[in-house]
């Protein structure tokens, strides 16, 4: 493994990791519109039977789905590849509880990202379940 | 999300993340005084009914509380904001076991930090429980 | 905690963290030879009763052991010390499931690493179990 010693690249990697952390914080605090705001205008969210395109559609969906403490995403194992203003990020996510039930579920996010006017956004988040599965997914 | 491409800022972010990791290692290895040493002299630790102020008081408390393998903090989802020698850090923590019982508990740390003579310390760690709750907290 | 504001050092830290993430991804996708390829030619993997030396031996062992979704390593709490082309990394790992059973196990990796022709490799990964224990380890 090598990472180029490039200051902008390192800052971009940090921004992308923190974007996934902000996603987690919005999820656990129940801020569904805040989760959606991390997507680009043309962003897409896909997990199980859910598949939404467009920031506003994602926000409308997540606003009703996201409640405080429903799940608490532990996001780990980021693998980031950056090419200018586009990037991919792989991460493993486990929520130990889901709707108060333990264990929740575990899977991986495959993300596409874009830097728009200096800020990174999710263009696509696609979640693959490993174990555990919410009944409504 | 943007992170300025500033070398000192990136180094500070790394130092703050590693501070939370050192905290976790001291906890899991049972080094309570080591945990406390990561606080500033005037630091404060607050979690549930516990609330201690002052490095020495925190160390005295944690020395008796912290035993090897009692809990194993998985610290994720860092969100860091730095303003000169002061910073905040949000992180989600899950310990899969607590005192040998599974599952342990999950919550979030809200930290205040200060850089003193080039080293970052916790000025305040405040933990909010999401799920699971040690009976003695 | 302080981290020197040195560009190469920060890039090396990122590379080492991502190496542990690539390890996790190879494990969860069932790519045992890919896991082994992250070791140096003279690398060593030690966990419980397992102890393998040499990349090819590690690959041969892991190829038979590693199947998709068998475990899903959440790697957190990295503590990295770099000295030129050598480094150590401590991390805590929890797999919420192991062979479909929940909970899996939790422990810590103590890694030695070396930079060879610009790329970081594991020279030694030694895993210490905290809780949970696969029956075949």
Describe this structure in a few short sentences.
3 copies of one chain form a homotrimer. In chain A, 28% of the residues lie in helices and 42% in strands.
DSSP E strands of chain A, number = 6
Assembly status:
homotrimer
How many whole angstroms does the radius of gyration of chain A measure?
Answer: 15 Å
- Our count of helices of chain A gives 3
Low-confidence stretches of chain A: none
What level of helicity do the residues of chain A show? 25-40%
Task: Please report which band the strand proportion of chain A falls in: under 5%, 5-15%, 15-25%, 25-35%, 35-45% or over 45%.
Answer: 35-45%
Q: What is the first-to-last residue Cα distance of chain A?
A: 36 Å
* Chain pair sharing the greatest interface: A-B, 33 and 25 residues
Indicate the overall shape of chain A: globular
The string of secondary-structure elements of chain A, in order, is HHEEHEEEE
Instruction: Kindly name the structural category of chain A.
Output: alpha+beta
Major β-sheet of chain A, in short?
A: 6 strands, mixed
pLDDT averaged over residues of chain A: 96
* Biggest sheet: strand arrangement of chain A: 2-1-6-5-4-3
Can you describe what's shown?
The structure is a homotrimer. The first copy, chain A, has about 140 residues and is an alpha+beta fold. In chain A, about 30% of the residues lie in helices and about 40% in strands. Chain A has helices spanning about 5-30, 30-35, 55-65, and strands at about 40-45, 50-55, 75-85, 85-95, 105-115, 120-130. In chain A, a hairpin with a 2-residue loop joins strand 5 and strand 6 (about 120-130). Chains in contact: A-B, A-C, B-C. The interface of A and C includes residues 76 and 106 of A.
């Amino acid at each position: 493994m090598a990472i180029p010693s490039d200051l902008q690249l390192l800052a971009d990697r940090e921004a992308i990791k923190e974007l996934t952390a902000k996603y987690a914080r919005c999820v656990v605090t129940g801020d569904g519109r805040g989760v959606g705001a991390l997507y680009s205008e043309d962003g897409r969210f896909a997990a199980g039977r859910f598949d939404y395109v467009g920031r506003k559609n994602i926000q409308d969906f997540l606003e009703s789905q996201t409640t405080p403490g429903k799940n608490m995403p532990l996001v780990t194992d980021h693998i980031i590849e950056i090419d200018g203003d586009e990037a991919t990020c792989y991460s493993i996510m486990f929520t130990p509880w889901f709707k108060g039930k333990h264990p929740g579920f575990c899977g991986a996010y495959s993300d596409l990202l874009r830097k728009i006017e200096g800020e990174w956004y999710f263009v696509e988040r696609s979640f693959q379940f490993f174990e555990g599965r919410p009944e409504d997914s």
